[in-house]
Amino acid sequence: MATAALARCLGDAVKKAGANKGPGWFTTHMAAASRAILERIPLVDFTLEVRDARIPISSAYEDLRDFSSSSTRIIVLNKMDLADRLQTQEWLKHFGEQNCICYGINSHNKDNIKEFLNFLQARVRELNKLGQPKHTITMMLVGIPNVGKSALANSLHQIGRISAAEKGRLKRTIVSPVPGETKDISSLKIASHPNIYILDTPGVLPPEILDAEVGAKLALTGAIKDCLVEEQELAQYFLAIFNSSDVYKQWKNLPSEENDRSSEDHKVKLLGTPEADIRRRKQYPTDHTQDCVVRSVRRTLFETVSSFKGNLENEEEMGELIEAQFVALREVFHVPLGSDEDGIYKVAMKLLNLYRTGRLGHYTLDAILRNSH
User: Fold this and answer.
1) Which of 39, 167, 313, 343 has its Cβ near the most Cβ atoms within 10 Å?
2) pTM of the full predicted structure?
């Protein structure tokens, strides 16, 4: 299968980077963090393993495999807003059948965070019923890089302070789209009566990745620094996944580029002169995050896939489609025809950004297998 072939190629590059300990791979701080986390696991009341909902198995935290499932270990599927909603529900059901406590969240959704905090407090009450009630509870977030641990810790801290009506300066941990930015273990209070503190920990990759497909998925979702592999290969892998899915079909009724432009011009006229000038100044042809550009990208991808007459299972023919998509997207992204290598890089990075922010559909890359947990 063409998609599997691209995954193996990309995964082999990831495995090689791991074997050579490339930049950001199981660094000295990761090794130290891994030891510190393992030392603290027996001491904390709850361990919250944060995974990426797009890759519920591939993003598992290897160091927890030696610890059995229990009522104090919770799998948290973060970034569920980027994953396929129905498949996320299937994964939650699957983990439940494996006797694992699992919760799906979007760390940027306040209502979702409130519900999750209530869930955690309920777990604390259950724990206190089983033994001597504790006045202070500690929960530790663990996981690989870039699964959203720091964003989750900050959101819980913010919602918890509001709920408890606490005053004082709001603490925050560092949040970055670049994997491996959290270097130290930090503590944030998320609830009172009893006091609940959450420990945010650095993301830790395993010393070595043996499965090429897992490596490819980690690279595509941003758990591994892009510099370790070719950005063009990442974008090609995404396009292979996209082309093999039915996502493009939902863009069938997008307006044509001419109608889209007319609609935008009409909206600008309705706004009046001052507002229209502001709107025009905010439009930059090279800004790929603008709604009009995103619509053009979707329209282009729909047209290229729906008009394709070849066999998507064939590696060579899939490659031809992806090459044609790169050419078409270069025009959509307003990438000049200068250096070919530089142009391909820019198209790849813009495309990856739109995928990773959910602008080009929602994908769950891991399939449910028996005994997956």
Assistant:
1) 343
2) 0.88
